[in-house]
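User: quick one, sequence for these tokens?
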């Protein structure tokens, strides 16, 4: 039954992705679109791919720095391979990549999945903060364009912003009420829970995950860690910007337009569909309309930017998967931390 539900869920997401792609393409003049694609300057596209490669290497090293404070020392090679395989997994099954890459490190270096997953959660939090910073910067520079675009998304779904905020408040209140009920029940039955073997294992798992989450506070070289973070996002921005110059119709856009595409495109890639297909294309095409770019040229940009980076991820991920499978699995005792933490329930 569980397998059937998973199949139906991912089939639905794939169907949604296909529908959005069809919706973005249905009114286009395909002759104009093909003309735009025929005039691509591949030298700029190659530069975009090089920036992508640099971003992935830097991101893998940043993750390597996050893992070390947990007491485990994977090699950079294994960390990079696990990350790239995870990215490929996300193209097939959304949100599975995080689990897959942690499982890869478990196999290669004996790192517990909960601790590795905690570092991934911390990584996602940092990405969210960086996206919010870029979003704030973009609003400051392009407040009129993006205000109309983003608020338009809300007004299409709700009769008014007041109604949407009212719905949000009700949702927050409901979540808080449910959380309060669980908290009270937890306090009442805490002593019983402590005697439950499943609860003890769950607490140990969460403790290990939290150790991974807060690993960033124990990184010795904080300057290098945050330097890699800034470098990764600078490369993401550069990847979006240089593709402008690869297409004649978008070659005259400003660097500020590149910020808008980065922010909106990242939101599209974060959608829970396979590789952001459809969502990314529709959002990027729409935001480029705000800069006077015709639909055909906007779609050409979205296709070139998304497809090139997806192929790069697939190529790198497949090579990493082969390298990981050829490697001998780690023995648990070979990678145990020198001073493993003692949890309350283990005393």
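Assistant:
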């Amino acid at each position: 039954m569980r397998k059937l539900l998973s199949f139906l869920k991912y089939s639905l997401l794939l169907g949604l992705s296909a529908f959005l792609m069809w919706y973005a393409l249905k009114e286009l003049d395909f002759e104009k679109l093909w003309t735009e694609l025929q005039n691509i300057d591949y030298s700029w596209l190659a530069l975009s791919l090089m920036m992508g490669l640099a971003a992935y290497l830097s991101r893998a090293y940043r993750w390597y720095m996050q893992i070390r404070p947990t007491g485990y020392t994977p090699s950079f090679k294994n960390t990079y391979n696990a990350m790239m395989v995870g990215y490929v997994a996300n193209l097939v099954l959304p949100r599975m990549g995080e689990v897959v890459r942690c499982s890869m490190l478990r196999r290669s270096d004996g790192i517990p999945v909960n601790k590795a997953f905690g570092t991934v959660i911390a990584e996602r939090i940092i990405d969210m903060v960086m996206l919010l910073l870029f979003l704030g910067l973009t609003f400051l520079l392009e407040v009129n364009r993006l205000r109309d675009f983003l608020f338009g998304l809300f007004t299409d779904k709700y009769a008014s912003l007041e109604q949407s905020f009212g719905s949000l408040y009700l949702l927050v209140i409901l979540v808080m009420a449910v959380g309060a009920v669980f908290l009270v029940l937890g306090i009442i039955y805490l002593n019983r829970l402590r005697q439950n073997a499943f609860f003890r294992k769950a607490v140990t798992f969460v403790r290990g995950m939290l150790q991974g989450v807060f690993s960033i506070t124990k990184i010795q070289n904080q300057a290098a860690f945050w330097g890699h973070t800034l470098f990764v996002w600078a490369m993401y921005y550069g990847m979006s910007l240089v593709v402008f110059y690869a297409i004649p119709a978008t070659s005259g856009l400003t660097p500020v337009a590149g910020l808008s595409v980065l922010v909106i495109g990242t939101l599209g890639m974060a959608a829970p569909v396979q590789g952001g297909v459809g969502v990314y294309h529709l959002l990027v095409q729409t935001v480029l309309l705000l800069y006077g770019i015709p639909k055909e040229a906007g779609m050409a940009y979205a296709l070139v930017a998304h497809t090139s980076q997806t192929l790069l991820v697939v190529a790198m991920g497949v090579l990493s998967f082969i390298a990981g499978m050829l490697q001998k699995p780690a023995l648990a005792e070979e990678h145990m931390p020198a001073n493993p933490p003692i949890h309350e329930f283990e005393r």
